[in-house]
Amino acid sequence: MVNKYESIFIISPEVSEDDTKAIVEKIKGVIESHGQLESIDEWGKRKLAYPIKYHNEGYYVLVNFSSEPNFPHELERMYKITDGIIKNIIIKKDK
């Protein structure tokens, strides 16, 4: 059974441009190896609604993908252990 998901993750503004691209590619690779990447949209640096880890802005990335129901838990674990990602959310979309 395959479900559709949407995920947003925010990268710290202290991370260099090259490292930001590396983080995006890493997450993209993880999703592609466990599911089907539908789209990835880099929104760029934006002001945060509230400070997160003493930052007032972050680099936003929106990802749409489909995968088995057990993969989002693994993706969330990857977000948490990746240096530079300060916030993330994964939402299951209605079909």
From TrEMBL:
Q: Name one GO biological process term.
A: translation
Supply one GO CC term from the record.
ribosome
State the Gene3D superfamilies in the record: 3.30.70.60
The GO terms describing molecular function are: small ribosomal subunit rRNA binding; structural constituent of ribosome
Keywords for the protein's UniProt record, in alphabetical order: Ribonucleoprotein, Ribosomal protein, RNA-binding, rRNA-binding
- Pfam families associated with the record: Ribosomal_S6
What does this protein do, in the record's words? Binds together with bS18 to 16S ribosomal RNA.
Q: Which family does it belong to?
A: Belongs to the bacterial ribosomal protein bS6 family.
Tell me the protein's name.
Answer: Small ribosomal subunit protein bS6
